[in-house]
């Protein structure tokens, strides 16, 4: 239990009996789990080319346990830049004359900020001009948005120009690699302007699709760990000893896993251990004369794995 005091007692034992106990008292931590608050945004004066300088500062009330990991800049509701936490300035390039909305929000391991600071900038109205040709645009979605490690997702999208779908348009798919982007694959749109590529991410990954003359489109595929369980049985005097071998992928050496038993409609923790260097753990379920019970192995949520993952197994003894 978070922020609770516990006392652990240890005694040694040999053929002569038990030693005197040694105890230690400790208090568990209570992490402050919050997404970032709205940053303070300052907007400069655009230059003659329409570039608009932005700068911002993190919200003073942000959680120290879950600080900002990256910043997202949007213009008129569309993602413009994806920046590391240490970067707190950006210049929006070549804004057209007219009314625009710019926004900055932070994100951490728990997700994006619920609040984004927004500033509306009104540039001088330009004289009437001949209507420009429609600007190409790209849309992108991932299906499914969450996969188990080793699984695949399909990135689907469409390229349009105004209300017209663009056939045979070259599209590049990239993945986020720190502060830069790495190419994944390239494709071309079908006659109806759509495209689809299959990806198999090894960890939660942000993708973007780009096409000539169009602003990038983004989609994120989250990856949850895969838990594999295997029961083993051994005959002992008075019953059957049951053990459970658990392997987690990708490797998460040192992570804690819990063995829980279904009692009525409630899962109760009966044991816990840490994964070894090969991301495996061996847990003794118990020794039974006769019993059928359902157990599950739970990998709790961490800063890199926002969702807990569990896999259940049915234990039948004696062996059938």
Mind explaining what this structure looks like?
With 320 residues, the protein is an all-beta fold. It has three domains: 129 residues, Immunoglobulin-like (Sandwich), CATH 2.60.40.10; 89 residues, SoxY domain (Immunoglobulin-like, Sandwich), CATH 2.60.40; 92 residues, SoxY domain (Immunoglobulin-like, Sandwich). Helix content is 0%, strand content 58%. The protein has no helices and 28 strands. Strands 7, 8, 10, 11 and 12 form a five-stranded antiparallel sheet that branches. The protein has a five-stranded mixed sheet with strand order 14-21-20-17-18, with no helix packed on it. Strands 13, 15, 16 and 19 form a four-stranded antiparallel sheet that branches. β5 and β6 form a beta hairpin.
Backbone shape: elongated
Termini separation: 39 Å
Q: Would you tell me the structural class of the helices and strands? A: mainly beta
Q: What is the total tally of β strands?
A: 28
Our count of domains comes out at: 3
Largest sheet: 5 strands, antiparallel
- Helical fraction equals under 10%
* Low-confidence parts: none
Compute the average pLDDT: 83
Order of helices and strands: EEEEEEEEEEEEEEEEEEEEEEEEEEEE
Instruction: Please indicate the percent range of residues in DSSP E strands (runs of 2 or more).
Output: over 45%
Radius of gyration: 27 Å
**The CATH H-level homologous superfamily of the largest domain:** Immunoglobulins
Corresponding CATH architecture of the largest domain: Sandwich
Tally of separate helices: 0
Class of the largest domain in CATH?
Mainly Beta
CATH topology of the largest domain: Immunoglobulin-like
